[in-house]
Amino acid sequence: MKRPRRAPAAGMNRLRVLAVSVALALAAIVIALVAIGSGDYPMSLPDVVRTLFGHGSPADEFIVQELRLPRVVTALTTGAALALAGALFQSLVRNPLGSPDVLGFTQGSATGGLIAVVVFGGGTTAVATGSVLSAIATGAAIYLLAWRGGGHGHRLILVGIGVAGILTGVNSYLLIKANIVDAARAVLWLTGSLDGRGWGQAAIAGGALVLLTPVVVALGQALANLELGDDPARGLGVNVGFFRLTALACAVLLAAAASAAAGPVLFVALTAPQLARRLTGASGPNLMASLFMGAAMLTGADVLAQRLFPGHQLPVGVVTGLLGGGYLIVLLARTARRARV
Predict the structure, then answer these.
(1) Does domain 13-334 have CATH number 3.40.50.300?
(2) What is the DSSP string of 261-277?
(3) What digits encode the pLDDT tens for the residues 154-177?
(4) Is the pLDDT of residue 299 over 90?
């Protein structure tokens, strides 16, 4: 008797996910090289690569190592951290609208940064510290409100939207009470900007990625099981409460580190995981594909922000807001169409 053939779908899906992840990683590298080579002092890609390996001219070394590379590394790591946080949130709530922007974590991070600027007149370090601490406090508050006595993704979304509304009002009040100089600084930070970013900011987002990515990857199978629902996940041996809390903690820390590095950049966490999932065609959180998609997206958006209007640089948050807002409208329209069907 012939044995039935095993369906090759699972293996093909894994290969597609791997191929998409590698392609997105290469795209992020190419975009980063283009970003380093473009500007008022243009450099060819071979010159950029030579300089990165320590064989450039003194002028090229200064331009790349001191001026452009820190900004590009900050863009790569911040985009990757935001996208990974977004993938975790969307997996936890089982909803494409799950992201730090929608659930209140970005607004909470902004509150901490605003307090550091407006109340204490702090500089970059104070803003980063306030942003991280406030994001952690917001995450803890949302967790306690949403999952007291047990809860599900829809409850997290509702609580998060409510907290986001409250914190938006608090942030507006802080801006009104600030003097003109502090208000201008705060608004630029709130928009999300990579201008003037150095190795310190790159280290914040990069350090969070190095520490948390292995933990997040280890959670991958449990998250995929959690997307089936709590009861099926328990049936598969998943400790639902532990894995959910661990994933949420990682997501909050990643989002906080990204905000501390570049400000609350909008919509990368929302769109990158969705685009990655569409490319891979796979269920589950698509963690690594999302990470590389976020890195490529934010670095590409920064290139556009610097080159879209010659002689005038836009904050990168303006570009991600325009592109991400358009994607959100499309996503909502598709959701409404499916509901009608």
Answers:
(1) no
(2) HH----SHHHHHHHHHH
(3) 778 888 889 999 999 999 999 888
(4) yes
